[in-house]
Amino acid sequence: MALVSGLLLLMLSILFVEARTQPNQFGEIHLGSQLSPISNLNSWQSPSGNFAFGFYSQGNGFAVGIWMMGQPNNTVVWTANRDDEPVSFNVTIHLSEEGKLLLRTEQGNENLIANVSEIAASASMLDSGNFVLYNGSSVIWQSFDYPTDTILVGQNLTYSDKLVSSVSSSNHSSGRFFLAMQADGNLVAYPTNSAGLSVDAYWASNTYQDSEKGLSLYFNHQGFLFMDTVSKKPVLLARSSYPCNNKTTIFRATLDADGIFRLYSHCLENKTSRSVHIEWSALNNQCDVQGFCDFNSYCSGMGTNADCSCYPGFAFNDPSEKFSGCYKNVTESFCTDTKEGQMNDVITVENILFERYPYSVVDEKKENCGLSCLEDCLCDVALYMNERCEKYTAPIRYGIKDINASSIAFFKVKPTPAAPPMSLTIIIESKKSLLLFLAIAFGSVTFLCFVIAISTFCVYRDRAYLYEKLSGIISLAGEFTLRSSIKVDVSTPDEMNLPSWAYQCFAAGQLDKLVKDEDIEFESLERMVKIGLLCVQHDPALRPCIKNVILMLEGSDDIPAPPAIASFRITA
Asked: Per mean pLDDT, which of 36-40, 91-95, 222-226, 545-549 is the most reliable?
């Protein structure tokens, strides 16, 4: 009899210890309970099984949080110490015998999950999604008081509280936007990298209240988001409208990773299946979010299909995350180097808007606005809008492409460096290949103007015969070398200096030498040669811009007499 009594006492002791280390059927979690990310017990579920607290996968490790159960993916609604690095598999969550909720590493280091001075006697994962610590019947700590990016039914957002978006749907660290309940009763959304001023705000509830404590946002069981007021007359902010046909419905309001505050409903079909619907959205277009595309980039597109692009002269900080902004892809001064004659270029982008705090506003016409930026060492971009020329320096933020904006932005960029001149071994069989030889010998961007001029003339003379005429004329022999061997069918050594020779023929009125016995209209030939000679001037200031070249080719502009060509020789 004594033996039976002893065995019975031992069994009761074992059951008592097990009961203290595991939650009971009502969701109560006792002191001494623990979780491991790699064990079967890696979470504590609510009585209904709709919510769980414990470890979830993030990156290469695990994070501690609360999630809504569902297929194919759970929905994380709260994260503890969200900006800490993911933990490894050899950590455990403890509700310690000392009444502390903490994370314990394999080395014995302990980090508090709930920083509370009172001692907990138990904990519960509630069906509301709230994780609670109790001291007797009193709540001493609850996750609802420390929201991350989401509020749930029964949860309030009061003065000084805020929601901070996650980095992404799979990374629940603090993201790029926050939603704050202000002292004036206004619920306002800002980029996190801003000062939180009115110019940074991109959405507001417009529920101003003359109260030192402000208002509070609360969420009822019907899926209605209300703003409480001092007069106790709630202001409806958003409501559910999707019928779930009497199925169990869970509502949540989340500041998503894209910066938009949305109301969601989760209709539970069964234990493992549920449908998710967006009931309300504070904004419909991602590009309406200030800072959706970070510094030196602009947002384009509609709805949730926004895209980020760098401004001319800038490159992505991280091409895999275009929203992270851009950097200036040159570091040297943008001022003109008069010694080398290097000029900056301007690239125009229409329908661009960005934060408008110019350091200078000048009275310039649209045609001269870009030039004004070129001549200003501080200027990175000039914006012409409403008959004003505004000048800005980088970084430039809050950029957006708006097809309704009548604006033109002039971005100062460094010109693409010209390729170093290459020496070729070329044998030219006749002066009929003069044009091709000049293009290869000079190898410069400016000489392309000469190509345009002469090729236009050739097309004018005989388009159908052009390619047939060129066939077999030129052949390349040897390899690219540092020196060239050139054989040209010319009668005098002076003709080796091709631009100079062309100018001498022009000045002497002997353009027929350039074409030998071919029948060509003299006025057209003279026009093309004059344009070509202007384009190969050594001094960049004497060369016409491509716009003027086109106008001269069209006959819309007069062609000035070309200056004499400087000596240019090719040695063998």
From this structure: 91-95
User: Edge to edge, what strands does the sheet with 156-157 contain?
Assistant: 156-157, 217-219, 225-227, 235-238
Cα separation of 176 and 269, whole Å?
34
| Residue 3, both tokens | 């033996």
Q: How confident is the model at residue 64 (pLDDT cuts 50, 70, 90)?
A: very high
C-alpha span between 94 and 31 (Å, rounded)? 8
Q: Which residues contact 245 (CB under 8 A, 6 or more apart)?
A: 267
Give strand ranges (E) for 131-224. 131-135, 138-142, 150-152, 156-157, 162-166, 174-181, 187-191, 203-204, 217-219
Q: Are strands 407-413 and 381-385 parallel, antiparallel or unpaired?
A: antiparallel
- In angstroms, the Cα distances linking 69 to 209, 254, 424, 551 are 38, 17, 71, 69
What pLDDT sits at residue 293? 97
H or E element, residue 181 = strand 174-181
CA atoms within 13 A on the CB side of 561: 4
Nearest Cα neighbor of 51 from 22, 30, 75, 19 is 75
CA 327/CA 296 separation, integer angstroms: 7
Structure tokens at 159: 């003065």
Domains of the chain: 20-145 (2.90.10.10), 150-283 (2.90.10.10), 297-413 (3.50.4.10), 426-554 (no CATH)
Beta-ladder partners of 412? 346
Q: What is the pTM of this model?
A: 0.68
Please count the other Cβ atoms lying within 10 Å of the Cβ belonging to residue 460: 13
Q: Which amino acid belongs to residue 535?
A: C
- Per-position b or e across 217-256, b if 16+ CB within 10 A of its CB: bbbeeebbbbbbeeeeebbebbebeeebeeeebbbbbbbb
Cα gap 465→486, rounded to integer Å: 27
Query: How far is it between the farthest Cα atoms of the chain?
Result: 137
Q: What is the dihedral of CA 355, 360, 362, 367, to 10 degrees?
A: -60
Instruction: At 183, list the tokens.
Output: 């002292």
Q: Taking phi first (over 0 means left), then psi (-120 to 50 degrees means alpha), and beta for anything else, what does residue 443 get?
A: left
Encode pLDDT of 177-236 as tens digits.
999 998 888 899 999 999 999 999 999 999 877 666 667 898 888 888 988 866 667 888
**Distance in angstroms (rounded) separating the CA atoms of residues 334 and 393:** 11
C-alpha dihedral, 203 to 209 to 210 to 215, nearest 10°: -100
Please give the distance of CA 503 from its chain centroid, rounded to a whole number.
53
The pLDDT of residue 65: 97
As a whole number of angstroms, the distance between CA 71 and CA 275 comes to 9
Measured CA to CA, the distance from residue 544 to residue 536 in angstroms comes to 10
Residue 93's identity, in one-letter code, is I
Other CB atoms closer than 10 Å to residue 12's CB: what's the count? 10
Q: Which structure tokens are listed for 170?
A: 């799979």
- Kindly list the distances between the CA atom of residue 100 and the CA atoms of 24, 118, 134, 207, 344, in Å, as whole numbers in the listed order: 19, 9, 11, 40, 65
